[in-house]
Amino acid sequence: MSNSERTPERTPEEETAQQTVKGVIAREKGAEVELADIVIPAPGPNDVVVKVQATGVCHTDLAYRDGDIEDAFPFLLGHETAGIVETVGEDVTHVEPGDFVVLNWRAVCGECRACRKGDTKNCFNTHNASKSMTLEDGTVLTAALGIGSFAEKTLVHEKQCTQVNPDEDPAAAGLLGCGIMAGLGAAVNTADVQRGETVAVFGLGGVGLAAVAGAALAGATKVIAVDVDKRKCDAATERFGATYAICSKDLSEDEVIEKVRELTGGYGPDVTIDAVGIQPTWRQAFYSRDLAGRMVMVGVPNQTDHVDIPAIDLYARGGSIKPAWYGDCLPERDFPTYVDLHLDGRFPLGEFVSERIGLGDVEEAFTKMKQGDVLRSVVEI
């Protein structure tokens, strides 16, 4: 059903069970977001209504607003979320009302060709809610990443809910739902950084700094952080575990490559991570790594970018180039682990929260994000 169509008429029981809440929508490409009344339908058999406590403002939400992901407007934005399970469908067994959960967009199906091979991190048929949230006039909303949580409440599939320690700050916990897990997992899962290895991370937004922190947590002896913004370089060394930082603002691509190599005995790091997704950082990550080194792409390119690398260089330098989808995470394994590490003082999850804002402040948060003034603005409800 297209978004211009209306939902089927509801039964009297469904009308009674549905709720109307406030939420942030992107009505058309490039237009400023707006606060609107959102109808949450009664949960289907395996659906869950979650009372949202906190949702991070992620670059993916901006990409949805700007039409860079798909054109299925209007969107209900928001996806990096922690909250409390409020209502569950009749067949739900995974969670129960009152559970403190982080929402994820990799609710594995267990049945697709990837899952049947045991490769659940690459599930091709992840679960979403069985019903759509709508505007009051019945216009269907496309939920960002199947979640749509810049709202007082949201509707998701039960497997999109991962229970974590309720002692955690919701503003910190919710960030594991996307960007922080993507960067952290790029180092720990995709690159599989080992104790004693050297790592360089190019781009120090929230994803890149999470990769820095992940490399440090994994036991890398040298973690080199590279960015054009000195503020972010300082944050990398002072708060997230980088051992060296290179401010690349006034350096050529080749000068950056040379400086990274100089810090690793002239050879280059064992692992490089491109957390931006543009040609210059891709090239720096590719050429600065050691021979047979591992390069990970976690920065998402736009739909028109190309990489220009001679084929002989791909062959001669050896090693591997791997994209990191969602940090190759398994939410049921990873989310509780990193919440517990944070509560134990061993992972700086709370350091990613730059400011706490309201639902009406999302558009301003997008501006701050584009200017590099924040790691994460977090909407608290």
Topology:
Blueprint lengths: L11 H6 L1 E8 L7 E7 L6 E10 L2 H7 L9 E2 L3 E9 L11 E4 L9 H4 L17 E2 L6 E2 L9 E5 L3 E3 L6 H4 L5 H12 L7 E5 L3 H13 L3 E6 L2 H10 L4 E4 L5 H10 L8 E4 L4 H10 L5 E4 L13 H7 L2 E4 L7 H13 L9 E5 L4 H9 L5 E5 L1
Helix pairs in contact: 5-6, 8-9
Order of helices and strands: HEEEHEEEHEEEEHHEHEHEHEHEHEHEHE
Summed up, the helix count is 12
In angstroms, what is the radius of gyration? 21 Å
**Which stretches of 5+ consecutive residues score pLDDT under 50?**
none
What does this structure look like?
The protein is α/β, with parallel strands linked by helices and 381 residues long. The protein is 28% helix and 23% strand. It has twelve helices and 18 strands. The strands form three sheets. Strands 3, 5, 6, 9, 10, 17 and 18 form a seven-stranded mixed beta sheet that branches. The longest helix is centred in the middle third of the chain and has 13 residues, at 206-218. The model has no long low-confidence stretch (mean pLDDT 95).
